[in-house]
């Protein structure tokens, strides 16, 4: 005679509790998140609502230089992170990453414009067309000075000024 317990499918009990692999994966993700928190500056860390014991553990981890001690501290931070909802932290980090990505792209655009201006004066017309209201006379002078500095091998003062003017 087969009891009711044996007639149940094998995976019914597995749904109640995550597998050991899934738990380990989640703990590693929390540890990685903790590593990102260690890399933040004090202002950014203060902007995230964290329990005091977690903040202390992060501060301690910043001061640890030995590899094995740091690894154990990261595991401890991962353990403390279990009590915290990680989603708001991830959202905050994602927002900061997006801002830095946008800023990097902006700086690259400015650098490309600066290089175009140094190659020829015709690029100023395209720049004025793209961004009306720019002081063309100042840009021409800065571009000319930067070209002269580059040719003479002098320090790139006008080159940097041109970047600031384009900013």
Short description:
With 167 residues, the chain is mainly α.
Mind explaining what this structure looks like?
It is built from nine helices and no strands. The protein has two domains: 17-84, Diphtheria Toxin Repressor, domain 2; 94-166, Diphtheria Toxin Repressor, domain 2 (Orthogonal Bundle), CATH 1.10.60.30. It has helices at residues 12-16, 20-39, 42-47, 52-63, 67-81, 86-119, 122-130, 136-152, 157-166. Helix 6 (86-119) runs antiparallel to helix 7 and helix 8 (136-152) runs antiparallel to helix 9. By secondary structure, the protein is an all-alpha fold.
**CATH fold-level name of the largest domain:** Diphtheria Toxin Repressor, domain 2
Task: Please report the first level of CATH classification, the CATH class of the largest domain.
Answer: Mainly Alpha
SSE class:
mainly alpha
Per CATH, which architecture of the largest domain?
Orthogonal Bundle
Point out poorly predicted stretches: none
Give the domain tally.
2
Distance between the first and last residues' Cα: 83 Å
Give the proportion of residues in helices. over 70%
Descriptive labels:
167 residues; 2 domains; 0% strand; Diphtheria Toxin Repressor, domain 2; single chain; mainly alpha
List the helices and strands and how they pair.
Blueprint (H helix, E strand, L loop, with lengths): L11 H5 L3 H20 L2 H6 L4 H12 L3 H15 L4 H34 L2 H9 L5 H17 L4 H10 L1
Helix pairs in contact: 2-4, 2-5, 4-5, 6-7, 6-9, 8-9
């Amino acid at each position: 005679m087969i009891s009711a317990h044996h007639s149940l499918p094998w995976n019914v009990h597995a749904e109640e509790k995550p597998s050991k692999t899934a738990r380990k994966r989640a703990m590693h993700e929390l540890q990685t998140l903790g590593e990102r928190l260690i890399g933040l500056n004090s202002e950014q860390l203060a902007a995230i609502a964290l329990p005091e014991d977690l903040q202390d553990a992060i501060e301690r981890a910043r001061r640890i230089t030995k590899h094995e001690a740091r690894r154990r501290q990261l595991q401890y931070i991962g353990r403390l992170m279990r009590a915290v909802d990680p989603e708001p932290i991830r959202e905050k980090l994602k927002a900061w990453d997006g801002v830095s990505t946008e800023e990097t792209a902006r700086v690259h655009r400015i650098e490309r414009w600066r290089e175009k201006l140094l190659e020829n004066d015709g690029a100023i017309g395209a720049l004025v067309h793209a961004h009306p209201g720019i002081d063309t006379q100042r840009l021409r002078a800065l571009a000319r000075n930067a070209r002269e500095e580059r040719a003479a091998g002098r320090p790139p003062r006008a080159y940097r000024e041109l970047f600031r003017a384009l900013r």
